[in-house]
Design goal:
The protein is of the alpha+beta class. It has a single domain, classed as Lipocalin, CATH 2.40.128. About 25% of the residues lie in helices and about 45% in strands. The protein has helices spanning about 1-20, 110-115, 125-135, and strands spanning about 25-30, 35-40, 45, 50-65, 70-80, 85-95, 100-110, 120. Strands 1, 2, 3, 4, 5, 6, 7 and 8 form an eight-stranded antiparallel beta sheet that branches. A hairpin with a 2-residue loop joins strand 3 and strand 4 (about 50-65). The termini are far apart.
């Protein structure tokens, strides 16, 4: 019986440890066009900038024009430079279900202008991302 208990305990410990790298989604904004979420676990600092992933959940089905498949959420990679207040948008993955669930229905590279670091515009989702990521990464003083 004691060996069985240890086995169950080890399995439970491994299950908990496996969740360490799991996404930690936090909602940043909600609007009629969708909900903006950030994965706090994905934020990685590097030389004054921070890379991260964010998710958008759409209230209505969106369409991948090439394949005619529909999606309800996207996860996008991005990088912010906190001190210069700029953002670079990376590749995105579209999922059939909300909350980045279900089948992957498309992967999209960024447009060249999105990939270049651009100033973060006030009162935009980019500003929400920049503020939150820079606070997590502790790359700028509190505003």
């Amino acid at each position: 019986m004691r060996i069985g208990f240890r086995f169950v305990f080890v399995l439970a410990a491994l299950a908990c440890a496996g969740g360490v790298d799991a996404a930690q989604w936090k909602q940043l904004a909600k609007a009629p066009a969708g909900e903006l979420w950030i994965d706090a676990a994905s934020v990685k600092r590097n030389n004054g900038q921070a890379a991260f992933e964010y998710r958008v959940d759409y209230p209505k089905l969106m369409l991948v024009t090439d394949t005619r498949e529909t999606y309800r959420s996207t996860v996008t990679k991005a990088i912010v430079r906190c001190t210069t207040r700029t953002i670079s948008i990376g590749p995105a993955v579209a999922y059939a279900g909300a909350r980045a669930t279900g089948k992957v229905v498309g992967t999209f590279p960024p447009a060249p202008e999105e990939a270049r670091f651009q100033p973060v515009e006030p009162n935009t989702s980019d500003e929400n991302l920049w503020k939150h990521v820079c606070k997590i990464a502790e790359l700028t003083p509190n505003h």
